[in-house]
Description:
The structure is a homodimer. The first copy, chain A, is an alpha/beta fold. Helices cover 35% and strands 24% of the residues of chain A. In chain A, strand 5, helix 5 (106-122) and strand 6 (127-128) form a beta-alpha-beta unit. In chain A, helix 1 crosses helix 12 (304-323) and helix 7 (161-173) crosses helix 8 (177-186). The longest helix of chain A has 20 residues, at 304-323. The termini of chain A are far apart. At the A-B interface, helix 1, helix 2, helix 6, strand 12 and helix 12 of A face helix 1, helix 2, helix 6, strand 12 and helix 12 of B. Strand 12 (293-300) of chain A pairs antiparallel with strand 12 of chain B.
Amino acid sequence: MKSYINVGMFGMGHVGTALFRLLKENRSLIDNRIGMPIRISKVVVSDLSKNRGVDVSGLNMGTDPDLILEDPEIDVVVELIGGVTLAESIIRRALDKGKSVVTANKALLAEKGAVIFPAAYRNQGYFGFEASVGAAIPIIRTFREGYAGDEILAFSAILNGTSNYILTHMTENGTEFDEALGQAREKGLAEADPTLDIEGIDAAHKLTILLNLAFGGRFDFSSLYMEGISKITAADISFTKQLGYRIKHLGIARKSEYGVEARVHPVLLPQQHILSSVNGSFNAVSLTCKYSGSSLLYGHGAGPDPSASGVAADLIEACRSIIAKQQPRTSPVNVPLKSWLPMEIVSMDELQSEYYLRFKVMDHPGVLASISKILADHSISIRSAIQPGTSAEGKMVDIVLMTHQALESQIQSALQAIQPLDFMAAESQLIRIGG
Amino acid sequence: MKSYINVGMFGMGHVGTALFRLLKENRSLIDNRIGMPIRISKVVVSDLSKNRGVDVSGLNMGTDPDLILEDPEIDVVVELIGGVTLAESIIRRALDKGKSVVTANKALLAEKGAVIFPAAYRNQGYFGFEASVGAAIPIIRTFREGYAGDEILAFSAILNGTSNYILTHMTENGTEFDEALGQAREKGLAEADPTLDIEGIDAAHKLTILLNLAFGGRFDFSSLYMEGISKITAADISFTKQLGYRIKHLGIARKSEYGVEARVHPVLLPQQHILSSVNGSFNAVSLTCKYSGSSLLYGHGAGPDPSASGVAADLIEACRSIIAKQQPRTSPVNVPLKSWLPMEIVSMDELQSEYYLRFKVMDHPGVLASISKILADHSISIRSAIQPGTSAEGKMVDIVLMTHQALESQIQSALQAIQPLDFMAAESQLIRIGG
């Protein structure tokens, strides 16, 4: 008879140390919930000398993955090192050894899902990845179990806390992107190299994971359209605010008559849209199901403590399975492996949307006429046009156009035709409208 | 080898017929998710002649519970008849026979939880009750599994769609309670006898179920303080709106230094509070956990289709267990039966809160002084006082006071001392402030 669950942890950075604290602090509560204590007995890290701010005495720490992977006493492997290559090898080896695995690694699951999920499916242990999307917000469980009997028709989600913090800061303070990014760095919300966050890659990783669960098919991360927030200016924020909108960075997925639409980019949302009031570093997923209608999950989508809470939920589910000597009853991707088939994402060219367009031009008579003519030639009709006032430079002005529903391919070719015109003073701006 | 899951359903009202439609419409999706079809093969109803608007040919329908309960081929019993006595007997018999059980019956679980949950715990089948609180909003799963590793410190929830619809209607249209109730009836959101909804009983049922899961103890429904919305007037809505608040009907639970606070009553929430923007018949649960911080779940908390979606999620979990030949790995109450012990709710007398008080008085000099004196004698200090203007009746006016933090017992005894004063023209109004 086992007397405790034996956990081996890879990585002891911010999330790892928070998990270590959580398991210590919530020990009696967790013991009570699962009927057996959880013990992190071994930890593998890259640098043993680093001070982690927690008491690690009594922990068996090392740098060799075999310390955990070759130990038959380890029941659950928790992978918190991030990155793709080493994490993939650790997880695949752990699965091969029949261990349960818990990971928060969105990049790995998005980019290598096609090999990791099948390996997890064939494994006899539990495979948990709740913290890979939205930290402790129970999105994975909700998609896989909460709406198991329902058809998910569409969802829109704020998936990257850094981008949302930056956009909120720009909206509330009227600052430019760079200053808001600086603020995010000061708050510990942006990495030294913020590319993954601000260019939409992290959000696209998370969207890929959710697509797998929502639509029961295998989605290719690299075929996802993604655009970040680094080109959003204070002018865009200000103009759209005047027009009653908020700019949010969203992952969007929708079943349409053409297949599954899925994309990551900034969006103009009406101010009263529920996602418009999700501010700061919060994440949220708004979804529409055939039977349950509209719903929303909202919470901290990042940070050591919320991530540790998400990892702990999986760890407890793993323990409950181990104690009951059960094999997993739910496929990690929500459908049996044999029906987890590649699913196409509808090409961006076929997207129908309304658009916000901003042109920085040298002001002279006929500019609006020239732009309007090219748009009309591409079957794009204008809903409203504003010229918010002369800029400080003197003759450069912004022209802001809101279009009716148009085809993405038409908009893109119209912009290509407009860009070389001699009155154009900068790259044009395009932001899609609607959640 | 089983070739399908055999379901017996009790009750075929609005939720039952929606479930029947859902299982038909989502058949291929559900087959794919669980690897086996679900078939509702028998239905027990009280009136066989009723037209249910769905094609019931091929269904084995009857009025005798034994039709389902004595059939060893039935794997899962779905109880959708509501009410306490008959439902209790059906569920206990189904559990005794080793069948999995899915129910949406909040009254039963709140009032008879002390017998139903232990019976479910000892049973070898799955016991699901997701739709008993918040319909398809996955609150039960989130409390039991999503935050399994975390400590739930507090939650506030809009648990009754009818009350929320009425309050929203009053807020948006300035109507009195009775007119808003009439609107709710027209929309099919209020029963002929609306007592359960508008007097807070339904919300208290749901709160009791959530308390069990959140705090891992056995809570007594009858010891819960509950107050409905039937005494809220258009004047209260209007005054509180001017002061920057919204009136919401909430279930509130909080771990405090004295134990667990739990209560159901109207609350003044600051307009920018996240629950203030939950309108119409929507439900929402806002919770605070030690590690994951603040989060929110939001969605349709009632209605045939959302309820059917919640029931279907449980049905699928039951099927996944049956197919994997597994016993449940999670206790229905989140902790093993031996540690599911009675837990006390802190007496309302000890509540510390800020208060909105409205006195309808015959206006003459010294009224405010008299009221203030009595409040001061009870150690209650006033944060602000307004007298919004002479009422249409001529000499009757409203005096609205907002207090600083005070003790509930003191407020109640102050109101008892004020009520008999000769200038008092009606019952005084008390609404607690804060989420």
